[in-house]
Every structure is written in C-alpha cells, then in structure tokens.
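Margin note: ligand = pyridoxine-5'-phosphate.
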Amino acid sequence: MPKLHVNVDHVATVRQARRIAEPDPVEWARLAERAGAHGITCHLRKDRRHIQDADVARLRETVTTLLNLECSLDDEMVAIACASGADEVCLVPENRAEVTTEGGLDVLGESERLKHALPRFRERGIHISLFVDPEDAQLAASAALEAEFVELHTGAYANATGAERERELERLRTSAERAHALGLRVNAGHGLNAANVGPVAALPHVEELNIGHALVARSTFVGVDAAVREMLDCIAGAARVGGRA
Ligand code: PXP
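Resulting structure:
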C-alpha cells in the first residue's frame, strides 16, 4: 500500500494567525507519527506564511519516520533545504500570490536551475522529488535530469467531478505507468481527502501520498490520531481492492 506522508503546514497556518506558539506543528507531527503516518512533510515558503525555519529544525530533531521538505528552486530555499537534514526534498513551483501550490514544476523551463540544484542534494544523500503535472513532457524531462521521484499533482483530479474526474484519474494512471517505465519512482498529492484518495491509492507504482489540508481540517473535529488512522484505513482499503496491499 502507498505510504502516508502527512503535511503539517496548515497547523502552522493556524498558529501564524496569532503569531504565538500554538498549535505546534511539531507536536501535531509527533501525534501523526504515533497514529501511523509513514512520514512528515512541510513546505518552507519564501514568504514564511506558515512553516518557519525553526519548525524545520525542530521537525528534523523530532521526526523519527521520514522528513520531506518542500521548497522552491529559489537560491535561498535550495541552500536551506541542503542544510536541513531532510531525508527527501520535493521541489515545487512557488508564486507569492497563490493560496496554495497551483501547478506542477515546469521541469523543462527550469532545467538549468535543476541541473545545478540536483547534484547539491544528491551529494548530501537527500532523495529528490519533482512535483509535476501528469504530462508526458514533464515526466520525460524529469527522467532526463535523473530525478529519483516525481510527485504527480493530483489537484486537477481532486477538483474535478463526474466524467472529468474519471479522465483526470486516467491521466494519473497513464502518467504513473509512464514515469515507472522511464525509471522514475512515483509519489502523488494535493487536494486528496478521505473521499477521493481511494482511486489514487490504487494506482500502480504510487509509493507515497502527501496529504495535508484535509487531515489538519479533520483533526479539528476528531483529533490527530483518529484523522490519521481514518486516512490510513482509506488508503489500505483502496490498495487492497486495487491489488496494491
Ligand atoms: N504535495 C505538494 C507538492 C504540495 O505542495 C502540497 C500542498 O502543500 C501537498 C502535496 C498537499 O496538498 P493538500 O494540503 O491539498 O493535501
């Protein structure tokens, strides 16, 4: 079954609304790990709107599963990510005006900056993932750069309904197959929740699902432990049905 990596950004969003110490994303992450999360993800944005530099350092000290740091290709962010001690870095596009990461990385357009950044991560033993839209050209460019993982952007699937959702799911399936055939490992995420995660968890080759907003939102009603366990059950159930147990 795919692993569940829990994104704690929006615990920090609530804290930053008051700029005080609570709620603490590090404590939330500890509870998520205790509930069975396989990894913890955070996104250090250039504008520091939610996760702060000190959170990354504290997460590194306390996370016992796997720490995945998302960041942009900005020089400052790449330097911080290299020094962070994260196990995995996911490179994402970043636009100051956006509410959340809107599209995948333009791997072709960013190939020069990627050619400089990727060896810096590799020499530190950090696993690299590129957050991409499920498109052949992005996958081919990621493979040409010898990225280890691609994270398929599931936002279009999550936002679609009816026949369009089926088409988006098919795009994800085709991309997962294609990425695997190109020698890339496959993760997926964005906009996933308990109601829509099943078909993505059943896709071939998907190793890690990154889920944040829905888990943080659900935890306000049922607590962190129940929210994470519910999601793990959804993933396990779907993976079993899809032959990916
Ligand atoms: N994956 C990536 C690369 C992201 O940028 C985000 C959002 O920070 C997520 C997954 C998680 O998205 P969501 O919060 O909608 O679950």
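The CA atoms of residues 105 and 173 lie 19 Å apart.
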